[in-house]
Amino acid sequence: MPKVRKVVLNRVEGEIQLKLVWEKGKVKDAFIIAPNFRGFEFILEGKPALDALVINPRICGICGHAHLIATTKAIENLYENAGLKIDIPQNARLIRDITLGAEIIQNHLRWFYMFVMPDFLKLEKSKKLKDFEPIKGYKWQKAVDFSSRIVKVIAIFGGQWPHTSYSVPGGVVCDPTTFDLTEAKSIVDSVVGFAQQEIFGMDIEDYLSVSSEEEYLKKSKNSDLKKFIFMCKKHQLDHAGKSYHRFLTVCDMEYAFSKGITKKKRRNFYVEKVREIDSYSYLTENGFSFDKNRYSWAKAVRYDGLPYETSPLSRRINSREKLFINLLKHYRDSYMVRMWARIDEIARLLYAMKMWIESIKPSEPFYIPPPADIKEISGKGVGLCEAARGSLIHQLTAEKGIIKKYNIITPSTWNLGPRCEKYLSPAEKAIKGADSQIKAEMILRSFDVCSVCTTH
Amino acid sequence: MKTLLWIQGLSCNGNTQSLLNAENPFFYEIFQKIKLIYHPSFSYRENLQTIIKKVKEEKIKINFLVVEGAVTSDKRFHKIGDYSVAQILEILKDRADYIIAAGNCASFGNIPATFPHNTDVKGVQYKFVQKEGFFPPDFKTRSGYPVINIPGCPMHPAWFTQTITALLEGKKVILDQFNRPKELFMYLPHDGCTRNEYFEWKVESEEFGHKEGCLFYNLGCRGPMTHAPCNKILWNRISSKTRAGMPCIGCTEFNFPLRENFFETKKNMGIPEEVPLGVSKRAYITITGVAKTLKNKRLMVKLEETD
């Protein structure tokens, strides 16, 4: 008889339960249970469309900004589908990318040092890991300092982080001075310093040209990424946690990543091919159902009928970055590679942020009013955005500016949703075969679990 | 050493994320003074169910119980292991010296309390303006304080750390009528707003994307009607919504987010439905009328063009 054990997971965003079915010392099946539900999509119904700019960031305390950008884009798309061209000044586009970049970097820093590294403290009692101990450890504290420092960039343009609604259809609300820009740049520079010294052990631009694992290990000095790679190898996590080896990214970001679908070969992404399946979800097309076989508030998301991983690793693959294409050849989409991609993105985004800040022209506009009052607009809109954990999709239907229906598909829904009749979710698949509970938890955490986003 | 236990109900985790941004003291400095018994985002050896058991057996003492997120007793919509957050609160409520509601969800219910399919979502002691939260209106903890509300969506980290520090040092914390620390929430975002001169001279923003103009009359700013020191204790110690050009949405108030059209000011015959706190409508009309006649030329041009 297989043994079934349920665990409540902490060190994730929100609450996740994991039901593991064991056989012969290995995980035979895994159920990822997202037990909490606030009902944002229901709350939004009947509200003025622009109010979604205030409500939606509050879906998530850690990537609320991504929800803001997706909401803004969905409303802008609503205008476009109604035949009204909406001008978004280049300055506004740049600032949205800068602040999104800052939020993603914040997430990756906190995720790596606060959520991931403590797993290794459970795996091995080594004095070398003392610096990573929560609250007391020097490196844990540094991660708090620098993750809090990078979000100051969002505060410069948006007033605060978390939870601002400064991006609006037509642009952004701010009108920064040259000195706001130099301050933002200085913040980025100081985080670059931290990343070079502690995370990568080498100059960021040199790191970005690295194309293989051997090259990285050879060129970098003592670094946290290096330590992480060695620990993965020591505990056989370099080959564990493989999923479907299919990757999805829904939008571009200059200097950072490009959109696409990779299933053996890379293709374009079409939002029409995205479907949600509710056969194992409490939330169904016809209301709530708590039937016995249903086990999560999340729905299963499929692209062209298939489950896809969406994550920084997907972004690396869809951007055809050499280092990760080489890593995949050897390790496939394993725990180690998935984690490395998140850490890698810190460097890529810091580099991009510097370019974007350079490109802003303070004398040019940051906002151009939309061509009509939202109260005159009816139709549908889609907002696509890459968030820290992967692809985020907002879809709305409005009638004279009032929301009739709102649908949100978060990265965590793609990765950690329940199964459908045919397939497990990417994370459920990745956990299968794990040989200990802690490793099963670690593999799940490699998807950067966010339960508040999963169910919203 | 005093102890702190942090639990989460229906929440976005934003107050925890906000608290990580704390400066003076920094997040990790607070927890050098207080022992953190458990926090869902940081604890790696402990588990909450075991801790609750130990608290029941009086093996662990709780000084500060912090609640983040709204409360519900309906396990279909929220549970932690086998418990609902309501059950955990029930077990712990008489065992903590202080209970602190961290953020607007725990204080007043906030967005989760507007979910139409579960009417059993509330704050710890309030549901919006009513004292109809999870605990009865006359509930007090062992220290004699009711639930101390530190609202805000999210709360500012300093509001939390300064409250904790004061209580830790045995100082008296005066609360306002919504159980918010008075010395923080007696300020308005209007106080210290860089657009105040525009407010005084009735120069109103018509659209976003400008440093100039007051956001009150056209763009829905709640700065003059909201209790919060956002422009005294700056966000991320660097800015605030109104400084960046975003209208205040009143997220520290008991009625957030019940209002609609956040980026619009409701008016009757050109007069805002709500006028700044402490001013009568008649006084508002008079003073704005006068201000409009006595133009301030400096405020008629872009800031870069002023002398």
What does the model show?
- The complex is a heterodimer of chains A (456) and B (307).
- Chain A is of the alpha+beta class.
- Chain A is built from 17 helices and 15 strands.
- Chain A has a single domain (3-454), classed as Cytochrome-c3 Hydrogenase, chain B (Orthogonal Bundle).
- In chain A, 43% of the residues lie in helices and 17% in strands.
- In chain A, the strands form six sheets. Chain A has a three-stranded antiparallel sheet. In chain A, strands 6-7-8 form a three-stranded antiparallel sheet, with helices on one face. Chain A has a three-stranded antiparallel sheet with strand order 13-14-15.
- The longest helix of chain A is centred in the first third of the chain and has 34 residues, at 90-123.
- The radius of gyration of chain A is 21 Å and the shape is globular.
- Chain B has 307 residues and is α/β, with parallel strands linked by helices.
- Chain B has helices at residues 14-20, 27-33, 48-56, 85-92, 104-108, 157-168, 182-185, 196-200, 216-219, 241-244, 281-293, and strands at 3-8, 35-38, 62-68, 71-72, 96-102, 121-122, 148-150, 267-268, 271-272.
- A five-stranded parallel sheet of chain B has the order 2-1-3-5-7. Chain B has a two-stranded antiparallel ribbon with strand order 4-6. A two-stranded antiparallel sheet of chain B has the order 8-9.
- Chain B is elongated, with a radius of gyration of 21 Å.
- The mean pLDDT of chain B is 96.
- Chains A and B meet through helix 1, helix 2, helix 4, helix 5 and helix 6 of A and helix 1, helix 2 and helix 10 of B.
- Chain A: This is Nickel-dependent hydrogenase large subunit.
